[in-house]
Amino acid sequence: MKFFASVFIITFVYSLSAFCQMGGSGVYQFLYLTNAPRVAALGGNNITLNESDPALAYQNPALLNDSMNKHFALNYVNYFSDINYGYAGYAMNLPKYGNVSVGIHHINYGKFQSADEAGTITGKFYAAEYAFNLIYSRNIDTAFRFGINIKPVLSVLEHYSSFGIVTDAGISYNNLKRQFAAAFVIKNFGIQIKPYSTSNYEPIDFDIQLGFTKKLKHAPLRISITAQHLENWKLTFFNPNTASNDTDLITNETRKKSKLAKKSDEFMRHIIIGTEIIFFKNFYVGLGYNYQRRKEMLVETRPFMVGTSYGFGFRVSKFHFSYARAAYHLAGASNLFSISTNIGDFYKKEVQ
Predict the structure, then answer these.
(1) 30-61 pLDDT, tens digit each
(2) How many other C-beta atoms lie within 10 A of the C-beta of residue 111?
(3) Phi and psi angles of residue 237, each rounded to the nearest 5 degrees, phi first
(4) Which residues of 39-70 are buried (b: 16+ CB within 10 A; e: fewer)?
(5) What is the pLDDT of residues 286-300, one digit of tens each?
(6) Number of H helices, E strands in the chain
(7) DSSP E strand boundaries for the chain
(8) Which is it for the CA torsion 152, 157, 158, 161, positive or negative?
(9) Other CB atoms within 10 Å distance of the CB of residue 122
(10) What's the maximum distance between 2 C-alpha atoms anywhere in the chain?
């Protein structure tokens, strides 16, 4: 535990210089990609699901719990173009000490052709990034749990490479009687130890999140609300290459927004809403809505389902299967697949 605390304190102190950085301005942006189908189905971010999937601990290390003991998860994401990424993780419980999990989150950007300044093809190169996860959690009492995730990061882009270390720290609250959960997490506080160039050190964006989940008492419905980027209120930006949201596309007249409308738009960009319908223990269907993704990625004349997501999961024998599809843009969507199992189930002796 002292090791985890020491690493977090060091990276926290060195990260203070980047406290006001806007999302997307730093390196290692792949760390924010959702790798768990169950989370993707709920809008792409959730820090309050208390289930037995080790991949959930990547979202919030405080979600690492006793039920994940000896569970192994393998996630694969078919992203855009030739880009693929995924996560593999294993968790175990250490009596009297807490829970630990090891995993790797990686992304492969595919194969590229290299050329000189004259356009002559000189060969091929690859690009990939890796984040190794070492997660620890411990119960504070019957309701509260804290967790920390140490993530060494390796980035290799052609002949450029970079190394850094980031940490996540979170706390979760789970009231089984009221079927209510809440969590607070700080993600990706870190430093770039080795930059891509010898003298150009770059910041790493971090994210402060707050989440709530409530299951209805007399219905198989669980609702989650996650607030992201609480460290920065203003998430809006203006793209000069697209029509302004304040401009009528037919009359080309400017529409004035009220202060309430502007404040509401800013607020909703922080909010992700997800709903799960739990038909029975081993089968669920999830739906999600990401307002920020929709506002940033839609084509205004053809918005369709941008910002929405859905998925489902079920169990067959000793294996859990999950699938999700998230609509990012009119041009396409990402597909996420997962398989997990309890390794210990394969070693249980049948009761005579």
Answers:
(1) 999 999 999 999 999 999 999 999 999 999 99
(2) 10
(3) -150, 160
(4) bbbbbbbbbbbbbbbbbbbbbbbbbbbeebbb
(5) 999 999 999 988 887
(6) 4, 14
(7) 71-78, 84-94, 98-115, 121-139, 144-157, 160-175, 180-194, 207-215, 221-227, 271-280, 283-290, 308-316, 319-329, 332-342
(8) negative
(9) 9
(10) 79
- Measuring CA to CA, which residue among 165, 276, 155 is closest to residue 225? 276
Residue type, 259: K
User: Would you state the structure tokens that stand for residue 149, as one six-digit string?
Assistant: 């995730």
183: left (phi over 0), alpha (psi -120 to 50) or beta: beta
- pLDDT score recorded for residue 330: 81
- Identify the band that residue 18 occupies on the pLDDT scale cut at 50, 70 and 90: very low
> Is 318 in a helix, a strand, or coil?
coil
Helix, strand, coil percentages (3-state) for the chain, rounded to 5, are 15, 50, 35
CA–CA distance, 58 with 187 (Å, rounded to integer) = 10
In words, the CATH class of domain 2-346 is: mainly beta
Distance from the first to the final alpha carbon of the chain: 41
Q: Could you give the angle at the alpha carbon of 102 between the alpha carbons of 127 and 82, nearest 5°?
A: 25
Residue with tokens 């223990």: 281
